[in-house]
Design a protein that fits this description.
108 residues, alpha+beta, Ubiquitin-like (UB roll)
Length: 108
């Protein structure tokens, strides 16, 4: 190459970049959120609220189900709110947020 051309780059193994990224992500701590339980979810868990960690609503709910197996049945049909807005399980959570687990309600 001529002195005025771009500097040569050393090739980096493809897996090295992915591994470094995966390690960085795996090493990061997941956000901590407050989980509030309503009606049948509250009965399954035995408390109004608690804190859990996870990157998404699904991970947070999964951690709650792991700690409270009776919540699994309710969580399959529940609606989830994240900071007051209806979301799906794939919604990312932020540290200090609130996830609410709302089972179906009868009546009006």
């Amino acid at each position: 190459m001529s002195p005025s051309g771009p500097e040569p780059r050393t090739a980096e193994p493809v897996g090295a970049t992915v591994s470094a990224t995966a390690t960085a992500v795996a090493g990061a701590s997941a956000p901590t959120v407050t989980v509030r339980y309503w009606a049948a979810a509250r009965a399954a868990v035995g408390t109004d609220s608690e804190t859990r960690t996870g990157a998404t609503v699904g991970e947070v709910v999964g951690a709650a189900v792991a700690a409270h197996p009776d919540l699994e049945r309710v969580s399959r049909v529940a609606t989830f709110l994240l900071d007051g807005r209806k979301v799906g399980r794939d919604a990312p959570v932020v540290d200090g947020g609130t996830v609410e687990v709302l089972p179906p309600f009868a009546g009006g």
